[in-house]
Amino acid sequence: MNQENQPLKFGHFDDAAREYVITNPQTPWPWINYLGNDDFFSLISNTAGGYSFYKDAKFRRLTRYRYNGVPMDNGGRYFYICDGDTTWNPGWKPMKTPLDAYECRHGMSYTRITGRKNDVEASVLFFVPLGENAELQKLSIKNLSQETKRLQLFSFTEWCLWNAATDMENFQRNFSTGEVEIEGSTIYHKTEYRERRNHYAFYSVNAPMQGFDTDREQFVGLYNGFHEPQAVLERQPRNSVAHGWSPIASHYFDFELQPGEQRDFIFMLGYVENDDDKKFVGPQVINKEKALQMMARYDTTAKADAAFDALRKHWDELLSNFQVETDNPKLDRMVNIWNQYQCMVTFNMSRSASFFESGIGRGMGFRDSNQDLVGFIHLIPAKARQRIIDIASTQFPDGSCYHQYQPLTRRGNNDIGSGFNDDPCWLIFGTTAYIKETGDFGILDEQVPFDNQPGSEETLMEHLRRSFNHVADNLGPHGLPLIGRADWNDCLNLNCFSTNPDESYQTTENKTEGSKAESLMIAGLFVFTGEQYVELCQRVGQNGEAQRAEQCIQQMREAVEKHGWDGSWYLRAYDFFGNKIGSNENDEGKIFIESQGWCAMARIGAEQGMPEKSLDSVKQHLECEHGIILNQPAYTHWHVEMGEISSYPPGYKENAGIFCHNNPWVIIAETLAGRGQDAWQHYTKILPSYVEERNSLLHKVEPYVNCQMVAGSDAATPGQGKNSWLTGTAAWMWITAAWHILGIQPGYDALTIDPCLPKEARTYRVTRRLRNAVYHIQVNNPNGKEKGVSQILLDGQPISGNKIPYAEGEHEVEVTL
Ligand code: GLC
Ligand code: GLC
């Protein structure tokens, strides 16, 4: 392949429409979007690949998807258009017929894919109407030619047999369970409905179909692919009824379009639950009442358009809570649109369903969800509130945590292990941020169970106390936090000593007995979130508790200064035997990012200049052109005493990859040190709009969102991204931009204004809505300062300090640095 002939860009931002416009379907990796905001979700790639599920990508998978398939991204919702001898798809795949024009617009919870071939244009708008458990597909086909066109249209989607895991492995059963019903223009998928399930799915269209298929083998042909379905190639639906094997849903139309004529079809992929006594209306005939009602709500173009308008307005409102205007469109489009959008998606999905997360393995993470929600609170505070309660309900009485829980049941599970000793701290982090945004101290009085056990309820405030204590009560020989199975870095497994390739580092026995393994990352996190806990205790009048906590924090600071400083940076950890990790004494892994980020954010050893020295060391040893690398030098061979981290080849993932999630910790620490120029340099290295301008072909994954990991300088392809979308990077990039660079941070009773800017930033304007107030904040930086507010006018009156007390209504705030 001749690399030189490859384009470096595959699309562009359309900021006015809040869309990314992909103009070449052959993106270097499927570039996807998410549909749905509440319970029904879909993943959709730029060629319409992907799948849908209800609430839980593992247990309620509606349509089938094969990950890591050949060819890539095979399976989705496809429309086949037959025009004479030519058959094509608006999204190019799966036929891959060369199109005369192609465009995919990914917007806020919708995607519009448009293709044109031989003067026929087909445009499909995909979205989930607000509050509806269905994906709508509005297909508009237009004849742009001067002649009458006779066209055939086949829709296509493949049902998943609900449990996405067994769907892919339990064929001895699955091949005999599939069942469908066909009525009117609707294909109902009712596999297992006769027994324990009370839900079915359906795929309908708002016009009388002229044929259909529901059996994959008959539609596609046993030895054919989606790019050559026999029924389509022969323009002949089989009217097949699936009994077992692989049920699908395909509608068929044969129609004419006059020159200039357009025809719209509204397809609907829906999900319905029925009460047990209302499941059937006849022998094995399912009750379709709810499905019919749903279809009726969108059975005309006008109704579908109205639902789409409502979705657009919904996003206008959500995003209006924080809008910035600078002279830098690359910053504005990220802060105003894509970063907030990604925060919504990570809040909804945690780490479950993406094109890198199979939707089977990982549910909602305790640590991940607490971080995600902080980037999301300003969008829909009530949902963040519920999430905090859900998460806290899975905590154990001693403050420790399940590492994840399943969204459908909201119960903790041990699939990804437990005993990660950083987990409890994040509950403090999430809860305090929520109260600061909303003023809802009432959440602290909520009765929340432990491990979902009825009768075990205590207040949320008590959960926070146990979170704090779980760290304070589990200290190692240096007075530093014991790491447990791992800390934020899931792969720093200092107690597992696994030599069996058939077991997971995350779930194998955790040999903490007699372990001296301590974490400097947790130490920094504990001081930082501990101070949030102290401030909260003071707010609610628990002054004794505040003092006690303050003492623990002070001891931790001293322990870090004494045992956690390596001369020019903070150590990373002590291992099982008490040996240093992340020290200049080590041959490899001399310096790590996480402890620099957290200890510098917590300003540990500030009098001795430790944070600044540590940040300088980061620049010297960890920074590269694509961002800040996790550790250096990379581990070149495997260390049994460190676990998974050294299992990765150098430059990838937790072994010297650029793990974007942790870059913001350093950036924030830079802003706390007042170094706006350095913060900005680190920030823009991983800011998607800046990355896009460099080279999308190299970066590979979507240019409009952050990915979890970019290959570091030790890798074969430095700069290549992986694991896009579902990453804590989203929330942390938001916190970085909103609170620390633009410097607008909600506190308990005031909005703190404390920007930290690159010298060239002279002026910007932020509109911030919260607590029934709107603040129009004009920041002026006439002398090119990096930090330091010199004057604030609130509604024309000077105030002292940089805190704007909350007051309902509209306010003009003029800030001079
Ligand atoms: C993944 C996990 C997150 C973890 C990180 C580093 O992003 O979801 O919980 O902190 O990896 O290992
Ligand atoms: C792997 C990944 C890490 C993830 C962990 C838990 O170790 O590298 O990022 O957090 O699995 O599933």
The dominant shape is globular
Most strands sheet: 10 strands, antiparallel
Binned strand content:
25-35%
Number of helices: 19
Q: How much helix is in the residues?
A: 25-40%
* C-alpha end-to-end distance: 53 Å
The rounded Rg comes to 28 Å
Number of strands: 45
Mean pLDDT: 96
Kindly name the structural category: alpha+beta
Q: Which residue ranges are poorly predicted, with pLDDT under 50 across at least 5 consecutive positions?
A: none
Bound molecules: alpha-D-glucopyranose
Strand order of the largest sheet: 1-2-9-10-11-12-19-16-15-14
Q: Layout of helices and strands, plus pairs?
A:
Blueprint: E1 11-14, E2 19-22, E3 32-35, E4 40-45, E5 52-54, E6 61-63, E7 78-83, E8 86-88, E9 101-107, E10 110-117, E11 120-127, E12 134-143, E13 149-162, H1 171-174, E14 180-183, E15 186-189, E16 199-205, E17 211-215, H2 216-220, H3 230-233, E18 247-257, E19 262-273, E20 280-282, E21 285-286, H4 289-296, H5 301-319, E22 322-325, H6 329-349, E23 364-365, H7 366-374, H8 381-392, E24 402-406, E25 411-418, H9 423-438, E26 447-448, E27 458-459, H10 460-472, E28 518-519, H11 520-539, H12 543-563, E29 573-574, E30 580-581, E31 591-592, H13 593-601, H14 610-621, E32 623-624, E33 627-628, E34 631-632, E35 658-659, H15 663-672, H16 676-686, H17 688-694, H18 696-699, E36 707-710, E37 721-724, H19 729-741, E38 744-746, E39 750-753, E40 763-770, E41 773-780, E42 791-794, E43 797-799, E44 803-805, E45 809-816
Parallel strand pairs: 41-45
Antiparallel strand pairs: 1-2, 2-9, 3-4, 4-5, 6-13, 7-8, 7-13, 9-10, 10-11, 11-12, 12-19, 13-18, 14-15, 15-16, 16-19, 17-18, 20-21, 22-40, 23-24, 24-25, 26-27, 28-29, 29-30, 31-34, 32-33, 35-36, 36-37, 38-39, 39-44, 40-41, 42-43, 42-45
The structure holds alpha-D-glucopyranose (2 copies).
